[in-house]
Structure formats: structure tokens, C-alpha cells
Amino acid sequence: MARSAKVTAHLPAVTARFAADRLTALAESEGLLPHEVPEVLFVCVQNAGRSQMAAALLDHHAAGRVHVRSAGSTPLERIHPAAVDVMGEVGLDLGREFPKPLTDDVVRAADVVITMGCGDACPIYPGKRYEDWELADPADASLDAARRIRDQIDARVRTLLGEILAPGGESAHR
């Protein structure tokens, strides 16, 4: 699948961060680099709202007990301003984040893959937990609507975290 970069701000730093993350995912997916904590991947079409919000919330609540990634089947140039604003209201800064393309290596490295309206774009691999969360897109939402979306995501993230960290959950997977 051909990909073209849409992110242009701070390109060298963003490229280095993206490359390091993808190389780590590749090494994990090939069994060359074990991971000590469960891996969760959030996927939506643009990787500019729901998946970014979910990743930030899970990373915050997990406090290092889960490794989190996000990606999009057709990523945008930047995160939706409403998503940035409502996450800032709860003390989570999406300012350093950027939309990332969905790649096979991040799916293969994940223990849990949560999709949010991306249809058939995500490859399916045996032995992984897949869920589809039907949520509104904050792209053109009012701030009140974006807050409701954030709160729905937060409730689902907290439930997911409890399941992952429960005895016999994905933390025991590898």
C-alpha cells in the first residue's frame, strides 16, 4: 500500500520518532525484541481524533503497565483541534502527537487492536484480540460533543485496562 507523508511540521524530529517506533514494532512482531507489557493499538481512519484520544487516555491510566500505539488507514496532517482542546481540559497534551499511517508491523506487534470506524483497513492476525468501538468522530464536533466522545472513550479505556491487567489478561500473553 503506497503511503505519502502529510505531516510537514518538525519533520526531522517526527520522522525519527516514527521510524524508531516502527522499527521497535517490527522487531517485536518478528520476535527479536520481547515486550514486557501488553501492546494496544488504536486505529481509526484519520488518526486525528478518536484513536489519538484513546491512546493518550490509556497511556495515562496505564502508567507504564501497557504500551500504546495509534494509527490511521488514511492519516491527516494534524490532530483535530477539538480533540486537542478536550484532552487538554483533562490535563493530557496531544501537542507532540501526530497522525501516523497504519502499518502491518504495528498490527503484528499488538496484543489488542481496537478499531474505530476504519472498516476493513486493519489486517487480521490470529492470536490477537480485536474490538470495534463505534464512536462518533470529533472531527467536526462541537466542544460539548467532543467532550462526550472523550468521556465515552475514557470509560471504554478504563474497562479495557482492567481486562488487560487482570490475571490471565493480555499481560500474560507474552
Number of strands: 4
SSE topology string: HEHEHHEEH
What is the helix tally? 5
Strand fraction equals: 5-15%
> What is the alpha-carbon Rg in Å?
15 Å
The termini sit apart by 29 Å
Low-confidence stretches: 1-5
| Fraction of residues in helix | 40-55%
What is the structural class?
Answer: alpha/beta
Descriptive notes:
By secondary structure, this protein is α/β, with parallel strands linked by helices. It is built from 5 helices and 4 strands; from the N terminus they run αβαβααββα. Strands 2-1-3-4 form a 4-stranded parallel β-sheet. The chain is globular, with a radius of gyration of 15 Å. 39% of the residues are buried.
What is the gist of this entry?
Helix content is 40%, strand content 12%. By secondary structure, it is an alpha/beta fold.
Q: Main traits of this protein?
A:
alpha/beta; four-stranded parallel β-sheet
Write the layout of secondary structure elements.
Layout: H1 11-29, E1 39-44, H2 50-62, E2 67-72, H3 81-89, H4 104-109, E3 112-116, E4 129-132, H5 143-165
Parallel strand pairs: 1-2, 1-3, 3-4
